[in-house]
Amino acid sequence: MKKYFKIISAILFLVLGVGILFGWEFYFKDKIDTVEVIVAKQDITFKDKLTADNLEVKSIRRENAISNYLTPNDVDVVLNKYAAIDIKKGTQLYSKLVDTYNLIPNEKKGEFVAPIPDEWLFAVPGSLRKAFIADFYAIPDEEQQVIQSIVASDSEDENDSEDKKLTEEQVSNLVSKDNKPILQNIRVSSVKDGTNGEVKESTEDTEQATGEISTLEIIANDEILSTLQEYTSNGYKLYVVYRYER
């Protein structure tokens, strides 16, 4: 009897061991130390919008996750944004694959990054930053001095604050009544100071900028650039007003 008991016990332990091994390999292994990542559900072309239809969430072993992978918690960073490059099906998403503010020029549409030099600029809000959407007004020679004096007066009333946001209505009051923006909804790709550094909020004081705006860079095409060159070559200067922040 003891002999049979030992044989049965040995068989049971063997079956249990095999069961544990199979359970680990085909079930538990994939449940332990895994992470959820956002991957491309299909091939996604450069500049395509990232949506719930072309993305999905997958659980993978942590050791197989790439650096800086995006998780379901990052859904706001991804959805309705644009692919920064062509993305193959199954690719794990990370921040550099996502053109968050649509600031990468689409060459197929003739887009490029165009610098707006300081000498073209009449006035720019000190709070303008990268990724804002802006309108451009053309200010003729005869109106430039008048507007400068009004802006200077307003600045004194506001204790010389340079962070005053100029709205479309305020600009319309400063320029002639029939003056309309020559360009609208322009994407600002960069805001630089005299040292070619990006102007942003100071880490020490969030109300202060890290530099004074000297040059803007925008997403343009031939038509936009030709419009700017036409006005500035005829003595106009550009009054830049941002419509909203992003």
UniProtKB/TrEMBL annotation:
UniProt cross-references to CDD domains, sorted A to Z: SAF_CpaB_FlgA_like (cd11614)
Residue ranges constituting the SAF domain according to the UniProt record: 35-99
Signal sequence, renumbered to the chain: none
Any Pfam family hit: SAF
InterPro entries from the UniProt entry: SAF
Taxonomy of the source species: Bacteria, Pseudomonadati, Pseudomonadota, Gammaproteobacteria, Aeromonadales
Protein name in UniProt: Flagellar protein FlgA
Keyword vocabulary terms for this entry: Cell projection, Cilium, Flagellum, Plasmid
Organism: Aeromonas sp. Ne-1
Entry-linked SMART domains: SAF
